[in-house]
Automatic annotation (TrEMBL):
Its EC number is 2.7.7.65. GO terms for molecular function: diguanylate cyclase activity. SUPFAM superfamilies: GAF domain-like, Nucleotide cyclase. PANTHER family: DIGUANYLATE CYCLASE DGCM-RELATED, REGULATORY COMPONENTS OF SENSORY TRANSDUCTION SYSTEM. SMART domains: GAF, GGDEF. Residues 193-324 form the GGDEF domain. InterPro entries: Diguanylate_Cyclase, GAF, GAF-like_dom_sf, GGDEF_dom, Nucleotide_cyclase, Rev_trsase/Diguanyl_cyclase. It catalyses: 2 GTP = 3',3'-c-di-GMP + 2 diphosphate. This is diguanylate cyclase.
């Protein structure tokens, strides 16, 4: 796994990377539980864990030994681990100014030593850590640090592999299945808030393929993907739903905010150069549907799809907001 330079001062980008892996609040998985169990045994410690750091909390993907499943981010050792591209070694937390007053040091389980290795994504963001804790003072050798670092690389390889299987090979966007999973997750949130779904369809794309060939058509898809990716917020989700159809899930966005994005998309495509088709221009039609608590995923998609159909049938190159069925 080739990792780009560590990005230390881009918290929005880091959190977007966390979201990209779609791991938060997921069910336990054997491959990760096996890793922490093995690490706990090798190091002979009370606790080993894979911790993911959200904006304000730490969430444990896999843990071996007693420990919290979630914690306030700033109370955790791993919060400090992700601030660097090197392992964090704490031999005695009770005498370390950073941790001497930590609630997990002065209170149960009275932690004393810690070794944590950042889990770094291929694009250089630390999304969490693989770590071990002990209730006794302990020195960690260079060999032990190397061993835990190797296990951390295994964890990230598993996460990257799983992510790759959810991405469209041509565009690098989420697949239909992965995108639908995100819609389901939005629906299942306890306090979901606002969200808007945008379906995007390239106008007359069949004519592009018929005239210029499928290879040229693929280049058009990649060019459009690249241009739109630059417009979509890191916190939003972008998928290729099939053929020339794309989807954007705008988290926390009302229809008004989503319409602002559709206007930017139209403006960007009007200026997009497409050498693969002789410099010809393409337009898109878009259908929008705001999130309604209690509505099924299929009904949400259907509202957006009806709006998309209306946009195409009334002249294309426009965006229309879907309405509730009566």
């Amino acid at each position: 796994m080739q990792i780009r330079k560590f990005k230390a001062d881009d918290e929005p980008g880091r959190f977007a990377a966390v979201q990209r892996f779609e791991i938060l609040d997921t069910e336990p998985e054997k491959e990760f539980l096996d890793i922490v169990s093995l690490v706990k045994s090798i190091f002979n410690v009370p606790r080993a864990a894979i911790n993911i750091i959200e904006s304000d909390r730490q969430w444990t993907k896999a843990g071996a030994g007693e420990g919290p499943g979630t914690a306030v981010r700033t109370d955790t050792f791993c919060h400090h681990t992700i601030m660097s591209d090197t392992p964090l070694v704490v031999t005695d937390a009770s005498t370390d100014n950073r941790f001497a007053q930590n609630p997990y040091v002065i209170g149960a389980p009275e932690l004393r030593s810690y070794l944590g290795v950042p889990l770094t994504s291929e694009d250089g963001y630390n999304i969490g850590s693989l770590c071990i804790y002990d209730t006794r003072r302990r020195e960690f050798s260079d060999t032990e640090i190397d061993v835990l670092s190797n296990f951390a690389r295994v964890v990230m390889s598993q996460l990257e592999l799983r992510l790759t299987s959810r991405l469209d090979p041509l565009t690098g966007l989420l697949t239909w299945r992965a995108f639908c999973d995100l819609l389901d997750r939005q629906r299942s949130l306890r306090n979901p808030g606002a969200a808007t779904l945008i379906l995007i369809d390239i106008d007359h794309f069949k004519e592009v393929n018929d005239r210029y060939g499928h290879l040229a058509g693929n280049e058009v898809l990649k060019s459009i993907t690249s241009r739109l990716s630059g417009l979509i917020r890191k916190s939003d989700s972008f998928g290729r739903l099939g053929g020339e159809e794309f989807g954007v899930l705008m988290h926390g966005a009302t229809a008004e905010g989503a319409f602002h994005l559709t206007r930017r998309i139209q403006e960007a495509l009007a200026d997009l150069s497409l050498p693969a088709i002789g410099g010809a221009k393409v337009t898109v039609s878009m259908g929008l549907a705001g999130f309604i608590p209690g509505e099924s995923r299929d009904d949400w998609l259907e509202r957006a799809d009806r709006a998309l159909y209306q946009a195409k049938s009334t002249g294309r190159n426009r965006a229309i907001l879907g309405q509730l069925s009566l």
